[in-house]
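Hey, I was hoping to borrow your eyes for a little while. There's a protein on my desk that I can't quite get my head around. The fold is given in discrete form, as structure tokens running alongside the sequence. I'd be grateful if you could look everything over and explain what you see. Here's the protein in full, and shout if anything looks odd to you:
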Amino acid sequence: SQIVGGHEAEPHSRPYMAYLKVGVYSCGGFLVAPDWVMTAAHCLLGNITVVLGAHNIHEPERTQQVRGVLKYYPHPEYDPESTTNDIMLLKARLPCSGRGGRRAVLNDYVKVIPLPKTNSDLPTGTKCSIAGWGLIDEDHDTNKLFETKVSIYSRRKCILFYPHLDTGMICAGSFHELKDSSQGDSGGPLVCNKVAHGIVSFGYNAPPGVYARIANYLRWIKTIMKK
């Protein structure tokens, strides 16, 4: 799990970030409504515990809100072989104490991030960022949130690397510098102009990385979040 070429994020500067504990694994995720977390479908490897409001996930920070998951909604057409439709919504459970209702308590440390409003493609070269918890390099892991900048890669060029690329995927990365997300940041958001446009999905060890393209799934998202 690593953000290659990244640096430590300003604590709580990305209050929509969620840390997902999945058994011995971890994933990223992000809060899209007070009781809904979005992540990658391939993160469903067991029961998930959601930690909101975290910077250092190994410290019991007072800002953290821990939630179980009431219901899992992986995309019905998610295919683990080709990693198509790699998107999932998690309905968050009531806080253990019974206070604050089912929803996350929104404050300076826990906020939602907006989703795209239309199905239009982001222009090639759009500047975006990714963030996650994990290895900084081969030997050093970090408990703190790291972030890095990437830019949107042209679909035409990305198909050369990933022939099965479809409209539910978007590519980002930088070939000049080694900056890309890898395994442990799966499920985290690709943020462009303060909107979550993608979900970290897959990528070989070198950029560009492939992200689930949220704009492609707006109708499905709306349907699920009415539940």
Observations:
- Helices lie at 155-161, 218-225.
